[in-house]
């Protein structure tokens, strides 16, 4: 019912052009727009729901953000906070990307350069320059091969019908629930799927590397972009023990700083919703020496006690930047 209401609101915004006025009435504060993949999702064999938009739409998004916000880098945000000069008499915007997909370099980076806009890219260290396929992409690829079937979750956690009429949404619902199953990690859910619903032989072929390499990351740094940590292996932090969390959060900062020969000031918690990290994650981020840490909980950062280690972000999806804020 909640999602139905959102769809109606989106249509109202679109058809009445009401959103053009709403931009001007947004409250002051820091708005963080988070993207994942940029490009044509129809050509992807992996998780298509994490495509934020195509390159042309991203270009329009940047124009819109520039029109209604003062865009700043993470370094500028940290400096404003450190000197207590962050004024909430205007609207600031920060642009972020998670996961380090190669299309961030080939599709998003040219647009950012064109508009001379900074962005920060949160990198999982072991993904960059590798041919690794993360669990959510493996899961989506596998589920897509079983369209029309009922797919169970491990244990007594129910099932999901992969409705051919809305296959991508069905896959998204399965993955969404897989991240939240009690006492089961996403790795265990993937192993269950691989055992009980194996890929057909014809679907075993995979793409070449889907992540950027280190030289591409360095090229972006040289052109005004920033790099942040998204841990080493991109675990759901709330699923792992204290030692693992400490390693993922602390060691990723050290390795990135060695590779880039500059300080890494920001962390984005993998997945980033409330149940996917915890108070220990926040504590360890502070102890590791980060100045900022980002969640994926939506919201405007405008309180006097700025949430510098749980900064809210609006996740952009379905090509629609309006919906990320107004819905």
What is the residue-mean pLDDT, rounded to a whole number? Answer: 90
Distance between the termini: 14 Å
Helix content: 40-55%
Largest sheet: 6 strands, parallel
Which stretches are poorly predicted, pLDDT < 50 over at least 5 residues?
none
- Rg from Cα: 20 Å
Q: Note the beta-strand portion.
A: 5-15%
The backbone outline, from C-alpha atoms, is globular
Give, in order, the helices and strands: HHEEEHEHEHEHEEHHHEHEHEEH
Q: Mind telling me the CATH superfamily name of the largest domain?
A: Glycoside hydrolase/deacetylase
In terms of structural class, how would the helical and strand content be classed?
alpha/beta
CATH topology name of the largest domain, in short, is TIM Barrel
Keywords: Hydrolase, Signal
InterPro entries: Glyco_hydro/deAcase_b/a-brl, NODB_dom, Polysacch_Deacetylase
Protein name: Polysaccharide deacetylase family protein
GO molecular function: hydrolase activity
Question: Would you kindly provide a written description of the structure presented here, covering whatever features stand out?
Answer:
The protein has two domains: 27-120 and 210-326, Glycoside hydrolase/deacetylase (TIM Barrel); 135-203, no CATH class. The mean pLDDT is 90. The radius of gyration is 20 Å and the shape is globular. Helix content is 41%, strand content 13%. With 327 residues, it is an alpha/beta fold. The chain has twelve helices and twelve strands. Strands 1, 4, 5, 6, 9 and 12 form a six-stranded parallel beta sheet that branches. Strands 2-3 form a two-stranded parallel ribbon. Helix 3 crosses helix 5. It has helices spanning 2-16, 18-22, 55-68, 74-82, 102-115, 135-144, 167-178, 186-196, 214-222, 242-260, 279-288, 321-326, and strands at 29-35, 37-38, 51-53, 70-71, 91-98, 120-123, 150-152, 159-161, 226-229, 266-268, 292-294, 314-315.
């Amino acid at each position: 019912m909640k999602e139905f209401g959102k769809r109606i609101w989106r249509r109202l915004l679109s058809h009445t052009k009401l959103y053009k006025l709403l931009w001007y009435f947004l409250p002051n504060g820091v708005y963080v727009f988070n993207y994942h993949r940029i490009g044509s999702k129809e050509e992807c064999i992996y998780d298509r729901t994490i495509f934020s938009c195509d390159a042309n739409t991203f270009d329009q998004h940047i124009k819109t953000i520039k029109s209604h916000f003062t865009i700043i880098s993470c370094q500028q945000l940290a400096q404003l906070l450190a000197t207590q000069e962050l004024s909430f008499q205007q609207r600031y915007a920060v642009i972020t990307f998670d996961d380090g997909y190669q299309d961030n370099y080939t599709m998003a980076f040219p647009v950012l350069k064109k508009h001379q806009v900074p962005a920060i890219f949160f990198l999982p260290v072991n993904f960059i320059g590798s041919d690794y396929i993360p669990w959510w992409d493996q899961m989506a690829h596998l589920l897509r091969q079983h369209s029309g079937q009922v797919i169970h979750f491990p244990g007594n956690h129910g099932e999901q019908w992969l409705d051919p009429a809305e296959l991508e949404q069905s896959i998204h619902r399965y993955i969404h629930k897989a991240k939240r199953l009690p006492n089961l990690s996403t790795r265990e859910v993937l192993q269950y799927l691989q055992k009980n619903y194996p890929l057909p032989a014809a679907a075993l072929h995979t793409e070449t590397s889907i992540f950027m390499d280190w030289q591409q990351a360095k090229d972006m740094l040289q052109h005004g972009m920033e790099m942040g940590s998204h841990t080493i292996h991109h675990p759901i932090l709330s699923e792992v023990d204290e030692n693992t969390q400490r390693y993922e959060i602390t060691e990723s900062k050290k390795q990135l700083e060695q590779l880039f020969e500059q300080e890494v000031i920001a962390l984005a918690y993998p997945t980033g919703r409330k149940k996917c990290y915890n108070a220990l994650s926040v504590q360890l981020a502070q102890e590791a020496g980060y100045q900022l840490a980002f969640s994926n909980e939506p919201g405007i950062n405008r309180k006097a006690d700025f949430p510098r280690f749980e900064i809210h972000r609006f996740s952009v999806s379905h090509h629609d930047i309006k919906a990320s804020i107004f819905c």
